[in-house]
Design goal:
By secondary structure, the chain is mainly alpha-helical. Helices cover 69% and strands 0% of the residues. α4 (87-110) runs antiparallel to α5. The longest helix has 28 residues, at 2-29.
Length: 527
């Protein structure tokens, strides 16, 4: 037993070190990406918010639009180490390695140590985990806290008592990072009440769970009310996001309110302006959120067939193989990472293994119900809004654990063929989108080439910017903007002939004369 424990400990330590080295290697490699020190969209918002916090404005202004845990953690990092795009990513690499360790712990608690060890190995080499550990996004922190919460639940179920207080604290920390988990917390609380009914001191477990959660969330709610006079629980973007995923124009994954600007700040301002204009008065943040939430509900009620089709589409995008991008494409920007060029694990294999495991082991592992409850409830809490890779990633640890249990079961069962058949069917279904999905091909990714070109422009890397814009135009676009940008870059490179050519093409496409002034200036400068 002692030798076995030492051997297991050595394997766990080895995997932890490998996980850490892969993540650190990825972060160091990504310094070659022009986006490393030019964050965009959500990453730019987190960076800006954290800078303000580090400057001493810790209370901030207005009720939180977004959950505050990650920006505040980033702000603390900036305050301690100074503004750096490397240090927080390295810290997230460490956090990601500890998440792998938690996955081992979780698998061991609900199944056994071999399952936990195999699941840890999967998480160590799972390339989307590594990718997001290197981005200025809350994904890495949320993943760590969600898995920690599930580990805490396992102890609460086994030992009860004060362990439910710690579980509540974990729920609270996860909720102020990404509030979706509150729905799962409600389900656990209701289950506790049901199980405790009629027992001595039946109130203790549910009450401790509630107290732990409230202890973390209450200061956020009080702060929101203090600075805005509006009782916003954590953040008020929920209604906006609900409408984004439930409106007649929604495609299920694009995070833009119809009729608003596509950039982060512009979209934020437009959602506020539209709500106030339609209501004809000034609105508090919670009222703006409610305005958009009710618009989403009206769509569901008035067009139930369209809603069902959209929900089914979002569910398929959530379950099937492609990693749907939100701010940036994983497939495109992984090219800057040396570790991600290696043949690592992805959802294409982990997903089928996980679903095959749930099918084969259904009913055999009764103590695994919290994992299945989390998987189903958390998945619903994403699908009801909109779907992308960094939201789906929060349920992948459960698939890893069930996938590991499936592989171990495969080695022990006599009906080997049935297990293989289930996996093959799951693999075929989940991977069928690769027959038509082109988002993983850099040479077909228009948006990413434009993003790359914009980043090169900000760094005054004109030849690189020209190459990125020209590639984007070759892919094909009917927008004038890329041609305007390319013309400006050609002027920087003193290629006036090409600048005039691209300006003429921009004028042809600019039907609403949005770029008329810029095009005129380009022509003057090029002659």
């Amino acid at each position: 037993e002692e030798n076995k424990g030492m051997s297991l400990g050595h394997f766990v330590l080895m995997l932890f070190v490998l996980a850490l080295l892969l993540r650190v290697g990825h972060v160091v490699s990504m310094r070659s990406s022009p986006l490393f020190d030019q964050p965009i969209m959500d990453m730019a918002e987190h960076d800006s918010w954290a800078r303000q916090l580090a400057s001493g404005k810790w209370l901030g202004e207005g009720a939180f639009f977004r959950a505050p845990a990650y920006p505040y953690l980033l702000g603390v990092t900036y305050a301690i180490f100074g503004h750096s795009y490397l240090i927080p990513r390295l810290l997230q690499a460490v956090l990601g390695a500890f998440t792998c360790l938690l996955i081992f712990w979780l698998g061991s608690r609900f199944f056994d140590e071999p399952t936990g060890l195999l699941a840890m190995a999967m998480s160590c080499f799972y390339w989307p985990f590594i990718f997001y550990d290197g981005e200025l996004l809350l994904t890495s922190l949320a993943l760590f806290l969600n898995v920690l919460t599930l580990v805490a639940i396992s102890y609460g179920l086994e030992k009860g008592g004060n362990y439910w207080l710690f579980t509540g604290l974990s729920f609270g920390m996860a909720a102020i990072t990404r509030p979706n988990i509150l729905l799962f917390g409600l389900c656990i609380g209701l289950w506790l009440l049901h199980q405790s009914y009629g027992k001595k001191r039946a109130w203790r477990g549910p009450l401790l769970l509630l107290l732990g959660t409230v202890f973390v969330i209450a200061p956020i709610t009080v702060r929101n009310y203090y600075v805005s006079g509006d009782a916003v629980l954590i953040a008020w973007q929920g209604g906006v996001n609900f409408y984004i995923g439930n409106n007649p124009h929604s495609d299920g994954h694009t995070a833009v309110v119809p009729g608003t600007r596509a950039d982060w700040q512009g979209g934020y301002e437009d959602t506020i302006a539209i709500a106030m204009k339609e209501e004809g008065r000034s609105l508090k943040p919670s009222e703006i959120s409610w305005f958009w939430f009710t618009k989403g509900l009206k769509f569901i009620v008035s067009e139930p067939i369209a809603f069902i089709k959209l929900f089914a589409k979002k569910t398929s995008m959530f379950v099937l193989a492609p990693e749907i991008p939100n701010n940036i494409s994983l497939y495109f920007f992984r090219q800057f990472s040396r570790p991600l060029s290696w043949p690592l694990l992805g959802y294409s294999l982990v997903g089928p293994l996980g679903f095959a495991g749930m099918f084969i082991l259904w009913g055999k592992r009764q103590n695994g119900w919290p994992l299945l409850l989390y998987l189903s409830v958390y998945s619903f809490s994403i699908i009801i809004f909109f779907v992308c890779a960094r939201y789906r990633i929060q349920v992948v640890p459960i698939l890893m654990i069930y996938g590991s249990a499936f592989l171990i079961e495969l080695n022990e069962r006599e009906d080997f063929r049935k297990c293989v058949l289930v996996f093959v069917v799951a693999f075929a279904i989940i991977n069928c989108p690769w027959l038509w999905y082109e988002g993983y091909l850099p040479e077909k990714d228009l948006y990413s080439h434009l993003t790359l070109g914009n980043a090169h422009v900000k760094k005054s890397q004109w030849p690189e910017a020209r190459k990125a814009y020209e590639t984007a135009i070759k892919i094909g676009t009917t927008e004038a903007g890329p041609y305007v940008n390319l013309a400006l870059v050609c002027l920087r490179l003193n290629d006036k002939k090409s600048a005039l050519k691209y300006a003429d093409e921009a004028a042809r496409l600019d039907s609403d004369e949005k770029y008329g002034g810029k095009i005129a200036r380009i022509r003057i400068m090029a002659k």
